[in-house]
Protein 1
Amino acid sequence: MLHWLAMSASYLSRRMNHIDTSQIRRMFDLAAKLDSPINLSIGQPHFDTPDSVVEAARKALREKKTAYSQTQGILPLRERLSQKFQEVNGFSASAENILVTSGVASVLQLLYLTTVDPDDEVLLVEPSFLIYRGLSSFFGARMRTIPEDFSASDLENLKFDRLKLILFSSPSNPTGRILSEDQVRALGNLADRTGALLCSDEIYEIFDYDGKFKSAAAIYPNAVTMMGFSKSYSMTGMRLAAVSGPEALIRAMTTLQQYTIVCAPTPNQWAGIAALDTDMTDYVADYRKRRDFMVNELKDHYRFGPPDGAFYLFAEVPEDALKFVQRGIDEHQLLVVPGSIFTDRGNWIRISYAANDETLERGVKALRAMAGA
Amino acid sequence: MLHWLAMSASYLSRRMNHIDTSQIRRMFDLAAKLDSPINLSIGQPHFDTPDSVVEAARKALREKKTAYSQTQGILPLRERLSQKFQEVNGFSASAENILVTSGVASVLQLLYLTTVDPDDEVLLVEPSFLIYRGLSSFFGARMRTIPEDFSASDLENLKFDRLKLILFSSPSNPTGRILSEDQVRALGNLADRTGALLCSDEIYEIFDYDGKFKSAAAIYPNAVTMMGFSKSYSMTGMRLAAVSGPEALIRAMTTLQQYTIVCAPTPNQWAGIAALDTDMTDYVADYRKRRDFMVNELKDHYRFGPPDGAFYLFAEVPEDALKFVQRGIDEHQLLVVPGSIFTDRGNWIRISYAANDETLERGVKALRAMAGA
């Protein structure tokens, strides 16, 4: 047995040397040992999936809609998405040009596999969602970054050899920032200049507290729109997302999906239609209150960028981020995410306010104490 | 717009040149035009998902078990799988060493990504499931094959440079053959000799009509077992499968899953437990009758290998397979799958008997007519 374990790594691909989740795993291991944690590390809404969504999935199951769907996704969902993109997001995407898949992570997987060869360049707006960084490294891409407060002129002098993807989330995970229309337009110009794809991860689109969000495809029509159900409708475990964009890309991703997940879970595709028909206004208003509470309680103690949306603050801390996080656990049972998984620059933590009132109040108290207030 | 379409392929990865689904797509397009097709091309059971499975998913949904699960899958399902592997399949796999994922296609995706570098070798027992061939080509592996009726001595003289995977399905899609214990043992010896992983796709395990099936891991303990719920419980659209094998591999696949599908659909994981508790004996007995009917009706007209399991016959045809398939559509509205997507050797068709009595009777009549009977 020792023999086997010792030789076991020999069959792993070289790619596996470029993926490391030990920081996150260590955090989870530590968290599991706490008896009354203040958990501000969560990346999903703290409210339940709306009944309308759950009941639609239950109905599909009762009707035994449990077989493979078309690879591309059921037509009624793609038609409903086409309508939503037009009415809510202000851009056109036909049902034929939308692919339904199993979460935005699956979109990203398909995106990298269909476009990125080793040594191709990927430009990330940073700080950036950890999966962008992970996949760039895993697939041997050269990762380039620009800070999220870039201006149009910052992009003009950038030189690239083989830029394939320009990738960002807005509202941002981890910072909550919503890129301005000028910024998105500048990224679109860069895409045109380089032949790269502009890829907009809009999974947090409804968590837009000050009316700043506009879909990238409404500004730059060739944008790749990555739309997720997970956060908006608190259905992270139902694994449903969609992507629209240039025809050749959607066709390539659909072809590849026959070899990866085959199709998104069928009953949940029916639930997706119900989700798009569900009014989430009250949920978003509740999260706006949470955002306001956190900002007011913490703004005199921490520096953070504009908390426009999503449900995160990205706060600068006065010491090494991992040390700060460790101290939070040791002294307060406080769980936040170290910023080092989102950026190499500076010392930051991601504070999630997807939590109930009591947790937020305890969290604020701990964070203020840690800042020396 | 024309400008965009013309230049659109420039962003696609080189990998995309090595994937081609046009044959299958053309078949589906032709099939969609038939008004009363005899469909013997289906790769999933024709019976409904058992109520017990559907009700378990519905219960999980009602209880709002709709958030992310652990990446590796919910512990109760992994524990139940561990018990099943011991009691039904005769090998040991701890719950810690089982990964739950979104269909066997997802297992294969993770397997190739975690193990296969460009120019590594992959040995397929042929004819082989089309996804093995597709992924081998897509990831730049050198594909080697051995015919499924190989003997142990056939393997002894094979030379490899960098063999990473030995991959087969038994019962086989597309042939229905179940490999003998001697054959599996010989493949295990080859794995030991080369350092490759022996990967056994057991998605058709319950469709074993003559009691010939034995899990590879019960013969060769280091085997990678790929277990699927889709076919056994007719839940192809619920996207659920599991994999066990060497610890370092399962750990690597679990790490990567954080970047691909994150987790299998959570409500369906609960349904998986109910599936494993569901007695499928009657369903299998029904499929055995279908197998016997097809074999008796066709054996004097077509040559095919031992139809041990799954729900396919792989029959030799007296002309080019694509021409035969086209003639079936034109003359009889008959749909079967051309063997050319499973093997480069000879002219074959895959006949599925996952269909109702009337379809099978019409199918037999058409096939006999086409053989000139």
Protein 2
Amino acid sequence: MPYQVKPWKLISSVPALEEKWFPVRKDTVELPSGRIVEDYFVWEAPHIVKVIPITKDGKFVVCRQYRHALAKILTQFPAGAVDKGEALEQGARRELQEETGYTCNELVHLGSFAPYATKMTGITDIFLAQNATPNGEPQYDDQEETEVCLMTAAEIWKLIGQKEPHMIDLPAALALAEHYLQSTPQK
Amino acid sequence: MPYQVKPWKLISSVPALEEKWFPVRKDTVELPSGRIVEDYFVWEAPHIVKVIPITKDGKFVVCRQYRHALAKILTQFPAGAVDKGEALEQGARRELQEETGYTCNELVHLGSFAPYATKMTGITDIFLAQNATPNGEPQYDDQEETEVCLMTAAEIWKLIGQKEPHMIDLPAALALAEHYLQSTPQK
């Protein structure tokens, strides 16, 4: 120790749950130790785009939405799955408009992140949307009821500091936005 | 708009994938619109504890580990599932010792976070471990090969800034640690 970590070898892969909204595969893998694991499950989760919208006066546009696995209403930045054949930026603009009714000019890509890289394939690409502007009503479906709020960074950090569960994306995305804004001269 | 978002009603729940390492349930729910959704899948994921270890001279102890769903070696803070009947702090100390060989005195709870609150039940509790000290060899199993590294906050932010996937926990946990350290007088 320390030594270089080695990747696992994928031996085979079969579907374990063939559901459109929740496909799971079962992999047989060979560990670096030589041991074979025959039941390593991976959820083939969707590619997500997340947008951090900031208005001209420096307020963040956030969404309060019901999240069923936690059975709680949580505050988060607008996000959703990329449609088939859709470019990431295009998906980000669509989700921003659908969930908040806001549009923006330039989008800045802040990075690609895995929510749970052990057992989920999905990636979340995070974009910053400066000068976000209201542009009509949100147009979400009935699984995505959204209450749109404007919050300062300090208000969001205070919310995160309350000892109840938040989505891990909330501090991650806010910190990424603040790092970008601090390191980049603003127009 | 804006209006108060309403929770969904759980009508019934049945197992969809009965696997010890990946239990998935299928819920029938009633949306606030009155529409019934009969196939809302939820992965009943484990409760995770994550530790942000900082040495006396301000270096972060991080782990490089292979993450199979992404098929990549990623840098992250030590973490793992809480054992049955184990207190969160106890689990955090155990994971710290097992994955890095470090121990610490006081742990500070920085919050509870959901990696994916739509479709995963799991919560990640994040602890800060100041004055982390080497205390023997790591003792992980062969699914958790770990290369332990010491990095400054600036080095971790630089790594995050590289446009390859990272775990979303990395910027989240680092930002939470920095906020705590900046707002709390250090002993």
